[in-house]
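Dear colleagues,

For the upcoming journal club I promised to circulate an example of a predicted protein-ligand complex. I picked one with iron/sulfur cluster because it came up in last month's discussion. The inputs are reproduced below in full, followed by the predicted structure.
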Amino acid sequence: MDKLLEVENLTKVFALGSVLSKLRITAVDNVSFFIKPAEIFALAGESGCGKSTTARIILGFEHATAGTITHSGKKEAKNERVWFTEGIQAIFQDPFGTFNPLRPVERYFFETLRNYKLASSPAEAVRRIDAKLHAVGLSYEDLAGKYPSEFSGGQLQRISIARALLTDPQLIVADEPVSMVDASLRMSIVNLFKKLRDELGVSVLYITHDLATAYYVCDRIAIMFRGDIVEMGTVEEVLMNPRHPYTQLLRASIPEADTTHRWQGEIRLADTEQDEYLRQGCRFAGRCPHAMEICRSTPPPTVQVEGVQVRCYLYSEPFS
Amino acid sequence: MDNTILRTTALQAFYQLDLYGKSKVVKAVNEVDLAIQADEIYGIAGESGCGKSTLLKALVAAVEPPLRVVGGKVTYRIDGKEVDVSTLSPEQKRALRLSYIAYVPQGSMSVLNPVARIRDTYRDFIESHLGRQRHQEAFALAQDHLTDLGLPLKILDAYPHQLSGGMRQRVTIALATLLKPRILIGDEPTTALDVVVQRGVVQLLKEVQARLKNTIVLVTHDMGVHANIADRIGIMYAGRIVEEAATEKIFGAPAHPYTQYLISSLPKFGDKTPRESVPGSPPSLANLPGGCPFHPRCPHVQTRCKEKMPGFTQIEKNHRVACWLVGEGEHGQAA
Ligand SMILES: Nc1ncnc2c1ncn2[C@@H]1O[C@H](COP(=O)(O)OP(=O)(O)OP(=O)(O)O)[C@@H](O)[C@H]1O
Ligand SMILES: Nc1ncnc2c1ncn2[C@@H]1O[C@H](COP(=O)(O)OP(=O)(O)O)[C@@H](O)[C@H]1O
Ligand code: SF4
Ligand code: SF4
Ligand SMILES: [Mg+2]
Ligand SMILES: [Mg+2]
């Protein structure tokens, strides 16, 4: 099978508190997944489950404690910091945080072209910038000489996508790119990802907790919980027929824009992330309505159920 | 019977800026008429930058330069009497804050003092509002309040960074409602939280409302949250409320073209058909188009839309819309 990016047994351990502290959390625990060319792959889960840490390792901002990442067939040892390259570009959550308010926005574009030596003359640079801005529904004229404050959040997010496109990446890592924007802008950004995939063959690692847009644009999805991938498969299977109790909770918690489907009943929340990270056995056992004796002592195995990967005792022998 | 607890009448709140000698007026809240009822959850939705947070600042009388109320007024009904907020002294405003009206600002999770235990934040808060002498009694109140809201008492001993984002937000809401305010104003309290935690925060807001029988005004751009919690919704566009109706009506039969786009662009599970977002981008509030502010983006635009702002047309009881398509409209008081 064709794989653009493959993450194998990725692990990241953080020491909590002071350097001397013995407390460690495994923010990313033995995570494996792959992304195909021209695919939008979602990584979803509640905050603090390790999504950004995974993204930061892929981008080379952070070293993995263990595991490998293979990009277009090239395997890299864990401590080589080469990932934020022409082939992989990033988009972040806060469109206003991405740009310095005192710098004209176009400077970021010229800088990227210079860093990657992608234009031989100013005229060529402008041509290239204009072309990428057209891909996101803007033009060079729209942004020439302007500062970040002169754009709306949605425009800035489109501009950061255009900047990411300058190097013709095969993969865009988008860490919660829509969580700060309103409903209509959300749609315009995910529609843009669709267009990039369909027209330019770009893949997107779409990190989000907005499962409704994930369903709308993604092909496959991985659900993370406290460092583990607990369920992975096509969005059709995972979101329309969730198997893992955590995915079921997540799915039931989505506020649907439909007044006939209001939330029923109450849910329990974790008091602290730490408690769950440090839990023996299944980390969801404290909130799982189906928790059994064994769940509290030994981590469950990952099993395949009808093409979906699930990490839960409910689906493994001899319990199922 | 009129049960209005919070009213705005032709409210105008503008940011008056002086940039390098050039003056600029940002018309963030423009001729807003609201009549918010006691014991209701009123939702306000609209695109980023349309003036939602500014409207809330005016509602809680937290208007500071460069923001100014340049027209209209905000009135509270306190013990059966209508009180014009602009006549209140800073002392009176302080006294009303939290005991009558409480405000959870946007991004307020970060207001918790990072180096103080939650217990100490509560103590400081109680002392500053009830005075030192009532400390013991007040602390018992805090414990009861947390228990009532289903929050674990052990969080009192935690530092903010030890709590998850969702728990921090719930602690902030619990703190804001400690003195049982009649009105709670929340600005994007669930934004940037994940769905499970978001549901926990909404659950808490509903719990607060059920216990205190008070009024909640909730701003969020998450329409799913509105669908779950709001009784009525006001749709804001470019500083104005352009449509207002019961939640079911806003979702089921939106009448303003902007609201129609907003609702039809929402993704639904099990449906992958392409969805369009609102075309174009929101206007600058410092340089508004004439007439109906939505006209440059509206697929139904007519000549008069560009010339004159439509007034409200009551298309049904409790459903009003400001659009020429819907009716001639008239400017009048909100009901
Ligand atoms: N302190 C300020 N000085 C000048 N202009 C301001 C100030 N605060 C807000 N504005 C402007 O007023 C308008 C309305 O802003 P407001 O914060 O009320 O929007 P909002 O609807 O709450 O948006 P969001 O959904 O992004 O929170 C915007 O054009 C904004 O740029
Ligand atoms: N630099 C760091 N040092 C210590 N802990 C960290 C660091 N970065 C992240 N963590 C912890 O790792 C866990 C996962 O965080 P993160 O990857 O940011 O989650 P997500 O993006 O899913 O919200 C959290 O408990 C977080 O507090
Ligand atoms: S392994 Fe046990 S506790 Fe974990 S999700 Fe499955 S049933 Fe629940
Ligand atoms: S008044 Fe005219 S421009 Fe404004 S929303 Fe109605 S039809 Fe569109
Ligand atoms: Mg993150
Ligand atoms: Mg706001």
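Two points we might discuss: Chain A is about 30% helix and 25% strand. Residues A 14, 25, 27, 47-53, 273 surround adenosine-5'-diphosphate (ligand 2) (CB under 6 Å).

See you all on Thursday,
B. R.
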